[in-house]
Predict the structure.
Amino acid sequence: MSITNTSATIIQPLPAASSNWLRDLVGIAIILAAAIVGYFLFPNNLALLTRMIAIMLFVLSLDLVTGYCGVATLGHAALFGAGAYAAGIAAAHFGVTEPITMIAIGAVGGAVAGLVSGVVILRGHGLAQLVLSIAIIHLFHEAANKASNYTGGSDGLAGITPDPILGLFEFDLWGRTAYVFGIVLLIVIFVLLRILVRSPFGLLCRGIRQDPVRVSAMGASVKRTLIKMYVISGVVAGIGGAFNAVSTQVVGLDSLSFTNSAEALVMLVLGGVGTLFGALIGTIVFIGVEDFVSAANPFHWLTIVGALLIAVVLFAPKGLYGTAAALVERYRKGGK
Amino acid sequence: MTALFQVDRLKKSFGGLDVTRDVSLSLQKGDRVALIGPNGAGKTTFVNLVTGHLRPNSGKVLMDGEDISTFNPMLRVRAGLVRSFQVTRLFADMTPEQHVALAILQREGKSGRVAGTFQAMPDVMRETYAILETLNLVGLARTPVSEIAYGQQRLLEIALAMALRPKVLLLDEPAAGVPHSDTFLIENALAQLPDDLAVLMIEHDMDLVFRFARRVIVLAAGEIIFDGSPREVTEDARVREAYLGSYGHASSAA
Amino acid sequence: MQTFFSIGVDALAYGMILFVISIGLSVTMGLMRVVNLAHGAFAMIGGYIASYAARDLGLAYGLAVILAVAGTIIIAIPLERFLYRRIYGAPELTQVLMTIGITFCVIGIANYVFGPTLKTIPLPPDLQGPVDLGFRTIAAHKLFAIFCGVAVALGLWYLIERTSFGVKLRASVDNTAMAAALGVRTKIVYAASFALAVGLAAFGGVIGAELLPVEPYYALRYMVTFLVVVSVGGAGSIPGALIACLLLGAIDTTGRYLVPEYGEFFFYLAVIAIVWVFPRGLMGRAK
């Protein structure tokens, strides 16, 4: 007997495809609205908002491997820093100052770092995986520190002066161009990632997070899939890093630090692991609080990050967005 | 003529203890074989050896005459050797629709696509729902697996195996954990398996074994002690000995 | 030859310090399956207490050590009771987040209370000078560290292999549910092992202060070092941890002597290489 032609009449109507696009549009509208509100609320603090955008890209990238694939890593800054240094070195030493080219170079740098990190980190499981991820960020950090001819070592890499975007929009003193550029980048990447996470590949990654044994029993290669996701994640993080280099015109050694990796994880968990919106919200809240607290008393910042982490683990394991989404869901079900 | 699937003198020992001793068997297209044996006979080890989760000390596994002994579990699946799990292994947050679609996408080599959705692929959707329909799971197609009953999860395991269109299917206790009153659901599902598929079922439930299998293999202490028709198996002296005469009990309690 | 000998002694001393600090982590990870990133923070707390007692209060070294161990355990008990117990058996990511949160808090508080500078623990006169071995001289504190490492290894071996607590501990590591069914009060075994682990960490933090200087970022700086000991040695294995510590001590010390300008580069490279070759640990049943 053949299963394929038993009955073709039972195919359900497919509301999914069109509602996906609707939700994407709503997402873009929300990001745009938030961007405009931010622009008018903090006209003197656009640099902070611009940094937020760079970090959002970084946290989105972490969400791809941690949230969607279930790989716990404390070394993700390697991807972000590689993108930042790739773009920065291209500009400062090789005269590549066209911003979009710089972003592309950052994406490539991030992808290469993603490939290397992925291959190394996925060699182990559990504790070994964690150790490898910490070792790799330290290794990148030491390497960048040592190669001070190119990276400026602990002084940081300066002398990055990007051209006007498309030859039209010059990077101004108030950071307006950088901000708008960032918002455009963020929206483009957000939409691409939405497409990615609901694609067959995205589905496969979700499967791996829940049961890798079952996925390999389907004949899929867990490792190759994860490494592919690592490379994609590297592209996104690299773009974030490159954008940070373009907008701040410096690259510091701290972009390749363990702390940077850990903070990205905190932001992701704070917002909600495994949702793109969670990554965005976590970043906004974290950097907002950081700005506020470290202005008041920089000594307490690390303590507060720690306390925040403990609180999230104990009281809101799904993160802010996840918890809110669960509440809405419950309300809807209750209302029926 | 070469067999579709052949296990050739498989041996495995753990620290001096022989768990699998010279096990050989072969399956042809359309075979319905049950592998039974008392507890500790080495059935689970056998499954792990055949699927590539354990490496044998010696012996070969062949598909269509090709030696797949060096293949890892994933490559064996791609060669057409698919297994189900004794304890359900599914993706808790995903729906049956997504499970089956993912298996089909994987089989078709489309699971690496980074754009588009399976809902927008008419042939994938058609096949997905055909399989779900066969197993009476259409009503639950969009319910997360964590919210559906265990018996139906077992059916979904079989659905996944069907979606992969294997040549040889290894069913590891398909009725394990299912209430006796619901085994008929599993049995109906098994009756829907394609005719040319070779099935090797490991099972404790003797009623199911006798209704399903046209050939029975008995494994005891790592050795095949019987390979023949279901009718003869109860008559066989060695089988009776292996089960210490407790077979009559086993058939009712299972 | 002189260099070779110096490297050997330093490596041995460093390895033994690592062992004293990490063995507790190894035991708790084998037992409770908690990825405890905050373990180094307890060693650091020990160092701070000892420094405060010996330098600021002028107490004797031995007393400072005892105070450090006791004080760290007292600080750790409520943490175990209210935070760690919530994450036993939780997914790895949850454990990582919780324990890294604890680490950050400890660093922040240490930075606030003691300031960002290095803290020394004055050694007693007996441990300050060199010791003449006949053919070579060694710094006494290094010899002391090696002695402590050996003593801890032997003591733990005795505790685990020869006492009734050890039997319960091993049973709980092998199969917690079965041990509980046999009447072992696993919660008490957990708490006692946690206290032991923390106490050893504090002890190691104090006696190792000459080699691993006490400062607020201590807990982060050596985090991977302690974790890699467990990862390479295998959770719960004393011989595994010992071998891993000596190996890492040798690599780190050799790197410092021969290519100091590369900092920790080769150390981390070696860590990756070792874990790459032994992803499941040298001899443990690390999962």
Remarks:
- Residues 150-163 of chain B form the longest helix (14 residues).
